[in-house]
Amino acid sequence: MARALVFVGFMGAGKSSAARDAAARLGTEPLDADEAIERDAGMSIAALFERDGEAAFREREERVVLELLDAAAEGQPVALGGGALGSARVRDALRSHTVALLEVSEETAWRRAQGGNRPLAQDRDRFAALWAERQDAYEDAADAFLVEGGRGAVVRALPALQQLATAGDGVRMAWATSTGGDYPVWFGAWPDAQGDDVLITDDQVAAAVLGERLVEVPRLTFAAGEEQKTLATAEALWRALASRGATRRTRVVAVGGGVVGDIAGFVAASYQRGIGVVHVPTTIVAQVDSAYGGKTGVDLPEGKNYVGAFHQPQAVHVLHDVLATLPEAERAAGYAEVVKTALIAGGPLWERVRSGVPVDEQTVLACARTKLRVVAADERDGGLRQILNLGHTVGHAIETVTGYARYRHGEAVALGLLAALRLSGLDDLREEVGGLLAEAGLPTRMDAEIDAARVAAATRSDKKRVGEDTPFVLVRAPGDVVFGQHVAAPDLLGAVQELSA
Ligand SMILES: NC(=O)c1ccc[n+]([C@@H]2O[C@H](COP(=O)([O-])OP(=O)(O)OC[C@H]3O[C@@H](n4cnc5c(N)ncnc54)[C@H](O)[C@@H]3O)[C@@H](O)[C@H]2O)c1
């Protein structure tokens, strides 16, 4: 049977236009389930609903969709209606096709659908409930996730969507969009080596993860650890690239945690004014957060990540297996970023994380998609992206005061999250998050000898500072996080002092 390219998603996600745009690019005709149902019934869907009711409509929809999937040619774009995945037979049939989920927030969906004649878009509460109810079915069926974005994204994603058809079982892809460039994030597939690749990694990753993998790619290795995230390391790498004769066609393959990703990304951003980089994140921190969004850089003694550049990768490859060798303490440090992301996302991701399940592929995928959504809306930190800094203002200050040597980044973020939740006035949530962090082996208290006043003062060297004030990211509730919040100095000091109490 032919493998069609099927667009699914909620009402207003743009499935019909996606199938049309993709078909136009491929020089073929799109198939549209809603149009096929209207042809089959000889009337509009609204009239059909009115005459027969929803149950009869769903029966007809199931039959027509199954026929359509059967009839589709290899790679032919097909748009399904928002409710089609309610049928188990349709969900089953979709397993033999490439399914692309067009993500759309409930707010955007409502803006687009309200006021029309869609039978299920007449009442806002019902609409919102339906949106929430259907997400699981979409996500389970999806091979690809297209973050809500400009219409052109579908056409730009087409080669990656086509590649998915032959990528092998279980490989999934999320399409990242930003003004700085779009790229695929592959889950479950290593990058194919290209002739001009140079691999950058650290010595621990080289030993624990790489082994014989990608041996054909020339390798530049530096010593592991945040202390190495310096201009000196970047210079050594620039010079190693130059002495190897690397050109603007060279592609850096960065295999490692956030330190490797940040340095290798920065080296790629600046070598001969910019060459390509592909990330293969090997820590939880990197898989849920740092590999996406194009922030690269190094630390200065004066402040973390003080020198760097925005440089979007050409692709990211997320492999769950590589986490198997991750030391327990690094796993815990990564968990702090998972909790942060879940607080930002709210909804099912927060419910999943608060239930205490270990970080698995599903959690990593959900965290990555959360980050991609935020970056798509604001690549350069002008606004929304600042919410990703939840827990980081105090976290970075703790790292700065302790010379990046006492705590891992994620450990400092764990402490920072607790301070942020206190400043948010959410005592119960602080308690709950403290429990999750402690369970994962993260610190919930700061060493007594660390001077709280110095930590509070160090928040003023945060890059987000505006004048004398460093804006904070605060939580109103899981899923409702606000940036740019003023915090009074005594409150900040109190929240930091509490950490060492
Ligand atoms: N660019 C961004 O958007 C962004 C976001 C968050 C964090 N960061 C940065 O990320 C850095 C922290 O990243 P990290 O926590 O991944 O630290 P890391 O890169 O230092 O990795 C932690 C340790 O684990 C080792 N390691 C990595 N993968 C392994 C594996 N699979 N098996 C065995 N050992 C492995 C590393 O060699 C290292 O010793 C910080 O510098 C932080 O500023 C950047």
TrEMBL record:
This is Shikimate kinase. Monomer. Belongs to the shikimate kinase family. It comes from the Bacteria. Keywords: Amino-acid biosynthesis, Aromatic amino acid biosynthesis, ATP-binding, Cytoplasm, Kinase, Lyase, Magnesium, Metal-binding, NAD, Nucleotide-binding, Transferase. Residues 334-464 form the 3-dehydroquinate synthase C-terminal domain. It is found in: Cytoplasm. It is an enzyme of class 2 (transferase). Its main location: cytoplasm. Binds 1 Mg(2+) ion per subunit. Mg(2+) binds at S16. CDD domains: DHQS. One of its GO terms (molecular function) is kinase activity.
